[in-house]
Amino acid sequence: MAMLEIKDLQVYYGMIQALKGISFEVNEGEVIALIGANGAGKTTTLHTLTGILPAKTGSIKFNGTELTKTPAHKIVKMGIAHVPEGRRIFQQLTVLDNLKLGAFTRKDKEGIAADMKKIYERFPRLEERKTQIAGTLSGGEQQMLAMGRALMSKPKIIVMDEPSMGLSPIFVSEIFDIIEAIRKDGMTVLLVEQNAKKALAIADRAYVLETGRITLSGKASDLINDEKVKKAYLGE
Amino acid sequence: MAFLDNLINGISLGSIYAVIALGYTLVYGIAKMLNFAHGDVIMVGGYVIFTAMTSMKLNAYLSVLIAVAACTVLGITIEKVAYKPLRQATSLAVLITAIGMSYFLQNMALLIFGEKPVTFTSVISIPKISLFDGQIVIKSEAIASIIVSILIVVGLSLFVNKTRSGRAMLAVSEDKDAAQLMGINVNRTISLTFAIGSGLAAIAGALLCSTYPVLSNTTGAMPGIKAFVAAVFGGIGSIPGAMIGGLLIGVIEILGRAYISPQLADAIVFAVLIVVLMVKPTGILGKKVNEKV
Question: What pTM value is reported for the model?
């Protein structure tokens, strides 16, 4: 059984249908890339998955449990962490407070402290700046904080929305290195990216979204050589 | 000496404004709405204390406790019934609903307690302080107002900054969706905010009615609006800002009444607000909203 199973998901923004019945699955330990142009429905998919947006019809099953009627704050506790587009860290709070909020659903103090240590090892810059107000961090550091905050919830799967958006090339490479490192630790990752080249290079499988529908899917190594994908998303 | 006397009265009144302003500021900070019915919750608190003390012959402190409980429930109910269904509506719709709720509470009180104001018995029983051979007497109500408001501001700051629920409030105040993604129940956090704000309104009601012992269905309206001015003045959304704004508005009002004109005192308060908003639109301690993408 797949860890995450999405079936015929339809989502509306008022009268506008953003997702026209998409189905895909994510298996444990996989890195799955969701690629597509602006407005294709990538962010909508993630928002519906984590309960920010309601689904009209269709189902989302996480380890067999239906999620479409579950409120967002309960989904986190079940083990899905969401790194939102534009990072959405708490700008007016300190780095440490942001990380503590990431562990909001957890009660195991020792586990939290141990995970905090791990995150500081992975992101030494966050430890250096832990008492700093998060809004004063650079874009790349804020992205690291958003990832660290998501990891603090001790998720089974982490969904990331455009983690490389707006970052300098050095930071982009660094962010993808981090994703690689997270997956090596056994984390399952669902990655939404406009940087299709990097996303396909790191992913096991990928789905291509076009105006609310999945038009292509397969092994990332195959899609990266697909003529249509090359033309539309890789700029070749 | 007269000046010192006025100053103390101003600080005392300002302390009460501060406690009311905290309710405005908390709700605005977290639910992003102006709860114009907040002032009327003070009046409800006053009537609960009055009824408990006169009809039920209860002890003053117990009566205040009952009022705090009653207003907390009232605050949560108002939010659930009137504001929660409008979570996705425009802020104008919410504002109009809040004004409607304010009139509803005033008219319910009119229906139950009649139009004739009642005389409120002070709930404060601490001794007054006499200074400079009795030239200045600080009334027990003034002492109580100042001490209680300081305790509340300190307690509330600790709660918001040091506890898990407080951190959840800060997170919701900054970004509701991101807060949900942390596992925070936004609705419960908003309820908690209304509960705290309304509980504080009951305490403000006890202090206000003890200091100015006339209680009618509109008792909360003007202090409510002035406390709103205080919250904006200090920087809406900021807890220390509400305290500073409250104290300044109280002092300006009393000194204006004493040295400029009793009739113009209220006008001066609002003139100050206009000037502050022109010079610093976010108020004294208001945070600049930085929208970084």
Answer: 0.89
